[in-house]
Write a structure and sequence with these properties.
Structural class of chain A: alpha/beta
Strand order of the largest sheet of chain A: 2-1-3-4-6-5
Number of helices of chain A: 26
Shape of chain B: elongated
Number of helices of chain B: 5
Number of domains of chain A: 3
CATH class of the largest domain in chain A: Alpha Beta
Strand content of chain B: 35-45%
Oligomer: heterodimer
Radius of gyration of chain B: 18 Å
Number of strands of chain A: 18
Largest interface: A-B, 20 and 21 residues
Shape of chain A: globular
CATH architecture of the largest domain in chain A: 3-Layer(aba) Sandwich
Distance between the termini of chain A: 41 Å
Number of strands of chain B: 9
Largest sheet of chain A: 6 strands, parallel
Largest sheet of chain B: 5 strands, antiparallel
CATH superfamily of the largest domain in chain A: Thiamin diphosphate (ThDP)-binding fold, Pyr/PP domains
Number of domains of chain B: 2
CATH topology of the largest domain in chain B: Alpha-Beta Plaits
Order of helices and strands of chain B: HEHEEHEEHEEHEE
Radius of gyration of chain A: 25 Å
CATH topology of the largest domain in chain A: Rossmann fold
Distance between the termini of chain B: 25 Å
Chain lengths: 599, 179
């Protein structure tokens, strides 16, 4: 790092009586006028932050210096992207904002993928970036990047702090914006001289944001309309999304579903809001959802989305999606209404409050025949996989579910293993399923699991990752090892970027362009190089033994490398852009047309 | 209806859709213009004109008047996403509402002595004022509805428009309430 350590200037500042007077409270506590960096850290403490994730650099040294004596735990990551995913995993598991501390330039640009991931999935994280000193802004100084400019499109909001006296207000607003309404990432760019200079400004406890409105309760008139539609429904379905998880709406939704006698399906991120082992639950819908969930959605006469945004992975071909069904949309973000489709009723508000308000207004639907039909589909089209032909990821995940995975926090990466995990690992508790849904960020799973474990030290945490995605952020093995983060890493190793390979096999004449991973390391040896306990898993007969051994291991992280069948495919599958009715339930015997959907 | 881009003979964003006028009340925070512009840019929408004026009562706020064209459903979504920005207090599409709308243009035109009379007659029809005069050129100032300006400019074009500056449309709703 070319920059020199910021000089302590507290002596000269002690003589500044005017500043000292206005900062009487802070001085009384610390005995000196706090620096901007001190103030940032004090604000973090006031927000109840327990840990921050990050990596220092020249422009951020004053901030890291302030962390040196703080009770906040600094988790030093090996790459800034890992820090953002750790903060993200921490936030998803606890519901509290995760905090990232990085330096200017490349340190900050390395957070962009993490910001997108958090924005796509509405996760509250606060990213603090060092920046070049104010006189150098815009002059291409060493490690300068226009970070606010670069990140406008991937943040819920951002701040460039030009005046140290703004720090308390900005910090308060940042945490409020990140965690309220539809949560999301907030970035704060902090020039080094703002961090190093004095900041006698008092703390701020209130926010004044005239442009920021969060709906809570839906309008009574619209609730009545929704209730009237529900009263007439004979084939209702409740579609549960991440919003239900975020607002802890699960209990209310379950009561609601039982009262109106409607089956429940959830999105990838909605897993856990309503226990997936409940008799009304049909599991995940969408591209790789269960056949019975998709059949139910395709046949329903009313679909009520609670905290989901009609993602293209759910709807497939829009023109045929629930074509004749009444659509009710519950969302805290009014910009989601009408974005993808035009619902009959839009209920703006917090998912839990809306459902609690609606509960006394509804009665049982005439849905007995419908529930019987849905059960018949469940029996006729269960999730299954071949029992022969080598070790299968589905088998490993199915056994993990039965051996205790259902009570663990499951964090996945992105790809085939993610879909198999979503199918075979039932989620029964809120905040127990963490996965990068909207952004589909490979490399998310392992660091997010580290963050989740830090936030929930008493819960077992499994990172279920593929060999491709794991290699994107596995430098954080050092972070997990040195901090003794007791996270279990299950590497589903098929030596391929499996999901793309599946598409190539099904739709591109098996032209395997860029998908084989012949250079994979021996993951067991790799773990051992970090002094991490590791287990090899090659035979189906060893699955229970190895998974149990991993569960019982308590001295820091451990890794299980499961070498699975190389060319396996995820089914059911709805090709991108196809309608739900075109779902492929069994492996096809003939070549398929290329999908028309975007991804 | 001609957009500004049309009147200059360049490609318009979407000439088949009418222009919308959106007024956006924003907090005076650095970057607010970029944030608003990005909502349009992300969908490949062109902003036809954008005028920013400070709030006369509270210096912490400004009003943006944005004109753009596009299919109504997409525009509705754009407006919602603009309104969602933390620094945006509200965003309202005033198309079809009772509002006073106007625009101003300065036009520098070649005008030698034999053509000058015709130009000045045309200017008179449009209540345009001569604000600068040289031996071979005039600067005309015209105000009014954007369509009127389009029409005036197209009549002047054969004489040789040297330079054209348009303010973009500004708008204020009628009655006692603030826009």
């Amino acid at each position: 790092m070319a920059n020199k350590t910021a000089k302590k200037t507290s002596n000269s500042r002690k003589n500044n009586h005017v500043a000292a007077k206005s900062a009487a409270a802070s001085v009384a506590v610390t005995g000196k006028i706090p620096t901007g960096g001190d103030k940032v850290v004090q604000c973090l403490e006031r927000e109840g932050v327990e840990a921050v994730f990050g990596l220092p650099g020249g422009a951020a040294i004053p901030l890291f210096d302030a962390l040196y004596e703080s009770k906040i735990r600094l988790i030093l990551t090996r790459h800034e992207q890992g820090a953002t995913h750790m903060a993200d995993g921490y936030a998803r598991a606890t519901g509290k904002p995760g905090v990232v501390v990085v330096t200017s330039g490349p340190g900050a640009t390395n957070t962009v993928t993490g910001l997108l991931t958090a924005l796509s999935d509405s996760v509250p994280i606060v990213v603090l970036c060092g920046q070049v000193i104010r006189p150098m802004l815009g002059k291409d100084g060493f490690q300068e990047a226009d970070v606010t400019g670069l990140t406008y499109a991937v943040v819920k909001h951002s701040f460039l702090v030009k005046d140290a006296s703004d720090i308390p207000r900005v910090m308060k607003e940042a945490f409020f914006i990140a965690s309220s309404g539809r949560p999301g990432p907030v970035l704060i760019d902090l020039p080094k001289d703002v961090l190093a200079g004095p900041c006698p400004a008092p703390f701020v406890d209130k926010v004044d944001l005239p442009g920021y409105h969060v709906p809570e309760h839906a309008e009574p008139g619209l609730l009545k309309q929704a209730a009237a539609f529900l009263a007439k429904a004979r084939r209702p379905v409740l579609l549960i999304g991440h919003g239900a998880v975020i607002s802890n709406a699960g209990k209310a939704i379950l009561k609601f579903a039982e009262k109106i006698k409607a089956p429940v399906v959830n999105t990838l991120l909605g897993k856990g809001a309503v226990p997936e082992d409940h008799e009304l639950h049909l599991g995940m819908l969408g591209m790789h959802g269960t056949a019975y969930a998709n059949k139910a959605v395709d046949t329903c006469d009313l679909i009520m989305s609670i905290g989901s945004r009609w993602d293209d992975r759910i709807t497939g071909k829009l023109s045929t999606f629930c074509k004749d069904a009444v659509k009710i949309h519950v969302d805290i973000d009014v910009a989601e209404f009408g974005k993808v489709l035009k619902p009959h009723v839009c209920l703006a508000g917090d998912a839990r409050l809306v459902i609690e308000d609606l509960l006394p207004m509804v009665g049982p639907c005439d849905s007995d025949a419908w529930l019987a039909q849905v059960e018949a589909w469940r029996t006729e089209f269960p999730l299954h996989y071949p029992k022969k032909g080598g070790l299968r990821a589905q088998h490993v995940l199915d056994r993990l579910d039965k051996l205790g995975g259902r009570d663990s926090i499951i964090v996945t990466d992105v790809g085939q293993h993610q879909m198999w995990a979503a199918q075979f690992l039932l989620t029964t508790k809120n905040h127990h399923w963490l996965s990068s849904g909207g952004a589909g960020t490979m490399g998310f799973g392992f660091p997010a699991a580290v963050g989740a474990k830090l936030g929930c030290p008493d819960k077992p945490v499994w990172a279920v990752v593929g060999d491709g995605g794991f290699q994107m952020t596995l430098s954080e093995l050092a972070t997990a090892a040195v901090n003794k983060i007791n996270v279990k890493i299950l590497v589903i190793n098929n030596h391929f970027l499996g999901m793309v390979r599946q598409w190539q096999e099904l739709f591109y004449e098996n032209r395997l362009s860029g998908t084989p991973l012949p250079g994979n390391p021996d993951f067991v040896k790799l773990a051992e190089a970090y002094n991490i306990q590791a287990f090899h898993l090659r035979r189906a007969a060893d699955v229970d033994r190895v998974l149990t051994a991993a569960m019982e291991y308590n001295d820091g992280p451990c890794l299980v490398e499961a070498e699975v069948v190389r060319e396996d495919n995820v089914f059911p599958m709805i090709p991108a852009g196809a309608s739900l009715a075109e779902m492929i339930i069994e492996p096809p015997k003939m070549a398929l047309e290329k999908p028309t959907g975007s991804t | 209806m001609n957009s500004l881009a049309n009147s200059l003979g360049t490609t318009a964003t979407n000439p088949s859709f009418p222009l919308h006028t959106i007024s956006v009340l924003v907090r005076n925070q650095p970057g607010v213009l970029v944030r608003v512009a990005l909502v349009f840019a992300r969908r490949g929408y062109n902003i036809e004109s954008l005028v920013v004026s400070g709030d006369p009562v509270n210096a912490n706020f400004s009003r943006m008047t944005i004109t753009c064209s596009g299919d109504p459903e997409t525009l509705e979504q754009i407006i919602k996403q603009v309104a969602k920005l933390v620094d945006v207090v509200h965003a309202i599409d005033h198309t079809g509402q009772s509002a006073v709308e106007t625009e101003i243009a300065l036009i520098k035109i070649k005008a030698n002595l034999d053509e000058r009379t015709v130009i000045l007659q045309t200017a008179e029809h449009y209540a345009a004022k001569v604000v600068d005069c040289s031996a071979s050129s005039l600067i005309l100032r015209v105000t009014g509805a954007s369509e009127k300006l389009d029409s005036f400019i197209s009549l002047l074009r054969p004489f040789g428009v040297v330079e054209l500056v348009r303010s973009g449309k500004v708008l204020m709703t009628r009655g006692p309430e603030a826009t």
